[in-house]
Every structure is written in structure tokens, then in C-alpha cells.
Amino acid sequence: MKGRSYEVRTFGCQMNVHDSERLSGLLESAGYVPAAPGSEADVVVFNTCAVRENADNRLYGNLGQLVPVKKGHPGMQIAVGGCLAQKDRATILDRAPWVDVVFGTNNLHRLPVLLERARHNASAQLEIAEALEVFPSSLPTRRASHHSAWVSISVGCDNTCTFCIVPSLRGRERDRRPGDVLAEVEALVGEGALEITLLGQNVNSYGRSLGDPGAFAKLLIACGRVDGLERVRFTSPHPRDFTDDVIEAMAATANVCHQLHMPLQSGSDEVLRRMRRSYRRDRYLGIVERVRAAMPDAAITTDIIVGFPGETEADFADTLDVVRQARFSGAFTFQYSPRPGTPAATMDGQIDRATVAERYARLVALQDEVSWAQNRELVGRRVELLVAEGEGRKDDATGRLSGRARDGRLVHFRVDSGVQPAPGGDPAGASGGPGVPVAGAAGSGPAVRPGDVVETVVTRAAPHHLTADGPLLSYRRTRAGDAWELGRAAPAASSSLADSGAPAARQAVALGMPSVGPAASSSRR
């Protein structure tokens, strides 16, 4: 008998995306199945964020839309988890009494039990744990991608930034042992993953709880020895803890990508002090300078908050100055919004929304200019792309596919019928199957699939992406592409739990660079 169907809707940072993979894995291990596209799921799970003010509005707006759906769908259940659930708790049930389950960041593993209890008792279940009960990496997983995977190296955060509520919701930092991290990496590569992103609220404080302050650099080097692992990324580091041994490991380890996402938040020393960010602009720019000295091709991205309480026009000018000096390839930019429970919410000098919006527009315009100038320098360059699925929203209309370069840039490319396999790669079509249909190519091109690797030349630049409209120089079919193809052919039979190794049809996941704009999905560490 077919199990009940489920859908997980994710708001927030990379940690939330990874948690959603665990929630999906838990549900499938309990007998649930992914809802078919366009269908109404029997269980809808909201994995929430609490970083920005509009997170609340977005959640309750989505919950309100489900009221008539639930009335017409007997037995349907709604669950709310994540940071906002950890913060609001019973308030969610007060504001949305049609919700069946509320659970927190520390007890993800309880979701299947809580759903069954709510159904059996015909009453809402609220369960919030104050401390982590089970390390999430020990839970079953439904990975969102065959070729790219998140690997959590720590949970929680020991920082005390005045604008951020995350530490109070996710608890103190706890590190996984390096051997456990590497075992997960090796298992993922064994299943076909080519790229992993090491994930933590503050990755370069990794090892502090283990008594080894150099553990993160050592972990990067160890990942370099994993056979078959082609790309290693990490997010997010804190400038306070960024040490030169990490730069050396990035430069010396062949599969560690020359990409760095390092939150700035503000270019003003006074604002950084009020934010309780324990570094200043000179230290930040010094790290950028040393990274570029060791890796001239490094793509550096950041997070910036505009309109923090007390920010003057001179403070904002300092931020613009750092953007010019650092030459960021991209940025997550935010208009400050007060979060109840944070020190910044009650600070003097709250700035009116019109001023914040005007400064924000100037910042975005400058960052667009900087990003575009950098991208124009790449026109004519050869790039290696890991083919993605779902990142090019206009691909069907333009007859292109999309992929990520090693530096994380998004590239939209065409497939040419004259391409030859890369040296050492499998012959075209060796794995069989239809590959990805290429609009406008009349099926004449090679069967390039998500997870395969291609090389091409950049022909055009835009602020947030690159285009390559010439012929492919090479392509290589991979085990990740094979897994995508198998999952596409038999989605109903696949489970994709990490402990089963079975391939599955999955939704795309972006592990690349951020774009400029109010991206609510950014980490703000």
C-alpha cells in the first residue's frame, strides 16, 4: 500500500536546507513518499527561519493559504519546525490553530512520532527541546542533489551578534569528530557525489570544542585526499576566527574551490562594534588581501546589512568603500529588520525605512557594478562546469543548460553536436538513457545530464551570471549523472535515504555563489 505523501517547504539559511534533507529522510524512513508535483500532500512541513522580520509574515501567510486546502483534504496534517518554531512555540498554535505539530531545532528526529501522535489523539502536538537530543548528521537523509551535498561539521553558534537570534535558537556550538565528517564525505562520494560543502554556523571555529584550533584547515586537507571528490566548498566563516592556515589549505589542496563567502555585515568600525562583531574593517580587508595573494582567481562573496541602528551616512559610506576595495563577486544584502529578543531591537538610533531603502538601493547598484566588471574580465576564459538542474529558470526558453564553475559562478551554456568526450571520460552515450533534452538542438547534441562535467568558453557577462554560447570544448559523463538518470527513469521506486544508497529523483539545490539582492536564504554569520 502506498504511504502517505509529504512536502517540505524550506525558509532560511543553508542549515535549514540541510535540515530539510534530514526531515525528508525521516519521513521516508517512516513510510511517507514525496508528493507528486502539482498534487496536494497529505503532510506539509514548514522548516522555518527567524532571522528576518518577514519570516513571520511569510510563514503565517502560507499557513493561511492552507486552511481551505486542509478543509477539502480529510486527514491532511501541517507541521511547523525550525528556528521560528523554536522561538514562537505555542504562539504558532494560537495564531494558526489548524497546525497539527510544532517542533524545534533540537528535536528534528521526533517529527514522525509527533505526526502519528497528533493523528491518533486528534489534537495538536507541541514539543520543543531546549538542548540538542540527536546530532542531525546521524539521521537518514533524502539528499536534494545527486552531485552536490551538504556535510554538517558543527551545529549551534557561540557568537553574540546583537542583530542575530540564531544562537538562542540553535544552542551552543557543538563539533562533529573529524573522522565522522570524513566518513560521511567518503560515503557521499561512493554514492556519486562530486562536490561537498562543509556547513556550520561558523566553520572556522571548528575544533574549538575538540581542543584543536587548527582542525578546520586539517579537515580541508583531509578532504583533498578523498578519491573521487572533485570540489570542496565551505560556509560560513567568521572573520574573527579566519586564520592563515585555512588560506594555505585552500591554496594547496587541489579540490578545494577558490571561493570564499565571508560575511562583512558593515564596513564601519563603529557599526561593527555595535553589532558586537569582533573584527574591524582593516582585519577583514587584510584577510581578503591574503586570500587573493595566495589565490589570485578567488571569488569572494559576502553578507551586508544596511540600516543597522545608529548607522550614519558616514558609516554607510565606509561600507561602500569596503565594497569597492574588496571587489566582491557577489553579495547577500539585507535591509535591517529588528528581531524581538535581540539587543539591537531596543538600541537607540533605529533608522526610518525610507532611509534604509535608499541606502540599500545605492549598495545594490554599486555591487552590481563591481560584479559586472569582474564578470566581464572572464569573457573568453575557459571554464569547467558541474551541470546543475533547476538553476537556470529560463533554460527551456533559451535552449541552454546551466552549471557552476569551480569559483561558484553560475554559467548558462549551450550544447553543441560536435563536442567530443574529455580525455579520460566515458564515450558519449556510454551510460545510455536520454540525457537532458536541449531546446533548439533537435536532439543532435550529447546527452549532457545534471552531475556531468563540461568545459566551455564564456561569451557574455552579466552582473549575476555568465553565458557561454559557443560549442562545448569537452564533456565528461559521471556517476552522479548516471544516478540522476536512474532516478528520473524510476522516481516512484526510489527512496534516496542515505543509509540505503538508492538513487532518487530530486529537486535541484544550489551550492554556489549568492546573488546580489534581498536573499532571505543567506546565512548571516
Kindly describe this structure.
The chain has helices spanning 14-29, 54-71, 83-88, 90-95, 111-121, 166-170, 178-190, 215-223, 244-252, 269-275, 281-294, 313-326, 353-376, 395-398, 479-489; strands at 5-10, 33-34, 43-48, 77-82, 101-103, 125-127, 148-152, 154-155, 174-175, 195-199, 231-235, 259-261, 299-306, 330-335, 382-387, 401-405, 410-413, 453-457, 460-461, 466-468, 474-476. With 525 residues, it is of the alpha/beta class. The strands form 5 sheets. Strands 19-20-17-16-15-18-21 form a 7-stranded mixed sheet. Strands 2-1-3-4-5-6 form a 6-stranded parallel sheet, sandwiched between helices. α2 (54-71) links the parallel β3 and β4 (77-82). α9 runs parallel beside α11 (281-294). The protein starts with a strand and ends in a 36-residue tail after the last helix. It is an enzyme of class 2 (transferase). This is tRNA-2-methylthio-N(6)-dimethylallyladenosine synthase. Pfam families: Radical_SAM, UPF0004. Belongs to the methylthiotransferase family. MiaB subfamily.
